[in-house]
Write a structure and sequence with these properties.
Number of helices: 16
Shape: globular
Low-confidence stretches: 1-23
Mean pLDDT: 88
Structural class: alpha+beta
Radius of gyration: 26 Å
Strand content: 25-35%
Helix content: 25-40%
Length: about 500
C-alpha cells in the first residue's frame, strides 16, 4: 500500500493490563496522541486476525468545506473493504416509524415542565426563552432533554439571524461553510459496497427519551446555564479547537472538549452516550473480526477517546488495535449531493376491536402495573407495525385513556435484511402507577377510541387488583371475557 506505515502496539504492553481496575493506567493511552513524524490527519486504526481486517476511522459528523482530512490511505482501505459500517445509515434514520416513535416519546402528557423546575431554574429558563423568542406553550409538554435541544436550536437560530447586525466582536459568530460530515460524504458517493449500521437504530433514536428523568433534568439545567454564559467568541474558540484536534488526530483534546463537561456534570447522560454505546460498538467490531473479510468502520472520533474508549475496551478483551498513518498530506473532501430518501410505504389503521390484559410491571416494580392492548394484524410484508397511539388524562376520581390508530411501515429494498418474522399483532403496553388507579374508594378507568367508550371500576381488595366492566364491552374486551384481575402479592418476587 503506497505511502502506508503502521504504529504497532507492543505485545508486552498488553500483558500489563489490569482489566476492570478503575484506577489502572489506560492500556490504550499511547494510541490517543498523534505521532508527529507523520502529516496531521484524523485518527485511523486497524485490527487484524488470520482472515479479517477491520479499519476504524474517527469521523466528524459535520465539517467545513475547506478542511483537509481525506488521505490516500483512507481511500485505499475503503476501496478494498467488503462492508462500510456507520453509527447509523441514512436509510435507517429516515424510517418514518422510528421518527414517529421518537416524536411520541419526546413529550410528557403528565406533569408540565414548568412545574418541575425550582424558582431559580424557572427564572433562568424564562430569561433564556425571552432571548430566543420562546414561550412556555412551546416547551411545557416536552421532556427535559427535548426542551434543552429546542432551547439550543432557537438560541443559535436567533443569534445567527441577527449576526450581521452585531457590532460587539465577542458576540459576532464566524461565518462557516458547514457541510455534511464524513458519513454523509460516504453515503452520497455511490461507493458500490453495502452500508450497515453498527448500532441498533431504535436505541439510537430513543437514547435521550429513555434516560431517567433526573439525567434529563441535569442535561436541561446544564444547557440553560451554558447558553446564558455563551459568547460568540467562546463558542467559536471551542469549535475551532475541536476541528483542529480532529484534523490532527488529537484524541485527548477531542475527549476533553466533547465529553469533559458531560462526564463531570452529567454522568448519567455520559454513561448512556459513551460507555454503554462503546460496549455495543466493541461487541459489533469483535463479531465482525470473528468472521472473515475486510470491513471499514466509521464512527464519531470521540468513541476512540477517553477513559471508556472503544480502543481500551478492545485491548482489555484481548485484541490489539494499531494506529495507522499516511505519509501523504490529506486533501479536502465534501459533498454537495442530495441524499434521495428511500421509498417507505405507510398506512394508518384504526383497530376494529382491542383485547385487554393486566400484567405486572416489566421492570418488576411493586408500585406499577401494565395494561396491554392488542389487536390482530392481517398483513404480510417486510416492515414494521407500530403500537396504537394513546394519550392519558388523569382526573380526581377517574382516568381516561384515549387510543388511536396504529401505523404499518413497509421497508424499501435497502432494508430488506431487517424484515425478521411477520408481525401478527399491534401491541400497546401502558404502565400505570397503582396510586393513580386505586384510592380510598373504587375509581373509574375509561377507554376511548373513535367515538366508542368502555368503562371499568378499579378496586384493590386483599392484594388483588380488579378491573370490573361497567357494562357490555363492545370495543375494549378483556382477554378473560369478564373482569381482569392481578395478584399484587406476587409482584417484585
Amino acid at each position: 500500500m503506497r505511502g502506508f506505515k503502521i504504529a504497532c502496539l507492543s505485545a508486552a504492553l498488553c500483558a500489563l493490563i489490569t482489566s476492570g481496575a478503575a484506577h489502572a493506567k489506560d492500556p490504550a493511552e499511547h494510541l490517543y496522541k498523534p505521532d508527529p513524524a507523520y502529516p496531521p490527519q484524523p485518527a485511523m486504526f486497524v485490527l487484524r486476525d488470520q482472515d479479517s481486517t477491520i479499519y476504524m476511522f474517527g469521523s466528524a459528523h459535520k465539517i467545513e468545506k475547506h478542511m483537509k482530512w481525506r488521505t490516500p490511505l483512507f481511500n485505499e482501505a475503503l476501496a478494498k473493504s467488503d462492508t462500510l459500517w456507520l453509527e447509523s445509515t441514512y436509510t435507517n434514520m429516515l424510517d418514518p416509524s422510528l421518527r414517529r416513535e421518537q416524536a411520541l416519546s419526546s413529550f410528557d402528557t403528565g406533569t408540565s415542565l414548568s412545574r418541575r423546575l425550582t424558582p431559580e431554574q424557572r427564572e433562568k429558563m424564562e430569561k433564556l426563552m425571552a432571548e430566543s423568542g420562546l414561550q412556555w406553550t412551546d416547551l411545557d409538554r416536552m421532556k427535559p432533554w427535548l426542551a434543552a435541544d429546542a432551547l439550543s436550536a432557537e438560541f443559535y437560530g436567533a443569534k445567527m439571524q441577527n449576526n450581521h447586525k452585531e457590532t460587539d466582536k465577542t458576540q459576532k459568530y464566524k461565518r462557516r461553510k458547514i457541510t455534511g460530515g464524513v458519513e454523509y460524504i460516504l453515503e452520497t458517493s455511490a461507493l458500490g459496497i453495502p452500508r450497515k449500521a453498527i448500532e441498533p437504530i431504535r436505541d439510537h433514536y430513543l437514547l435521550f427519551s429513555n434516560l431517567p428523568d433526573a439525567d434529563q433534568m441535569d442535561y436541561l439545567t446544564y444547557t440553560v446555564d451554558r447558553l446564558l454564559e455563551e459568547t460568540a467568541e467562546k463558542s467559536d474558540h471551542k469549535i475551532d479547537s475541536l476541528q483542529k484536534a480532529w484534523l490532527n488526530g488529537d484524541l485527548p483534546t477531542q475527549d476533553e472538549l466533547a465529553n469533559g463537561d458531560m462526564r463531570r456534570k452529567m454522568p448519567g447522560l455520559y454513561s448512556a452516550m459513551m460507555p454503554e454505546r462503546n460496549i455495543r460498538i466493541t461487541d459489533a467490531i469483535i463479531r465482525e473480526l470473528n468472521g472473515s473479510g475486510d470491513d471499514f468502520i466509521v464512527i464519531g472520533s470521540a468513541h476512540f477517546a477517553g477513559p471508556d474508549s472503544v480502543l481500551r475496551m478492545l485491548i482489555e478483551r484481548g485484541y490489539t488495535p494499531e494506529r495507522v498513518y499516511d505519509t501523504n498530506e490529506p486533501e479536502t473532501s465534501f459533498s454537495n449531493k442530495s441524499f434521495y430518501p428511500p421509498l417507505y410505504g405507510e398506512g394508518k389503521i384504526m383497530p376494529k376491536a382491542v383485547t385487554m390484559s393486566l400484567l405486572p410491571s416489566k421492570t418488576n416494580r411493586v408500585d406499577e402495573v401494565v395494561v396491554r392492548l392488542t389487536t390482530p394484524v392481517a398483513y404480510h410484508f417486510c416492515g414494521r407495525v407500530s403500537p396504537m397511539l394513546h394519550m392519558i388524562i388523569p382526573e380526581q376520581d377517574s382516568m381516561t385513556i384515549y387510543t388511536g390508530p396504529y401505523y404499518i411501515t413497509q421497508y424499501p429494498k435497502e432494508k430488506q435484511d431487517d424484515c425478521g418474522s411477520p408481525t401478527k399483532t399491534s401491541t400497546l403496553d401502558i404502565p400505570l402507577a397503582l396510586d393513580q388507579l386505586v384510592g380510598d374508594k373504587p375509581r373509574i378507568l375509561q377507554f376511548w377510541a373513535a367515538g366508542r367508550m368502555d368503562s371499568f371500576k378499579v378496586s384493590l381488595v386483599d392484594n388483588t387488583l380488579t378491573f370490573e366492566p361497567m357494562g357490555p364491552n363492545l370495543y375494549f374486551k378483556p382477554v378473560t371475557k369478564h373482569q381482569l384481575t392481578l395478584d399484587l402479592a406476587s409482584l417484585g418476587q
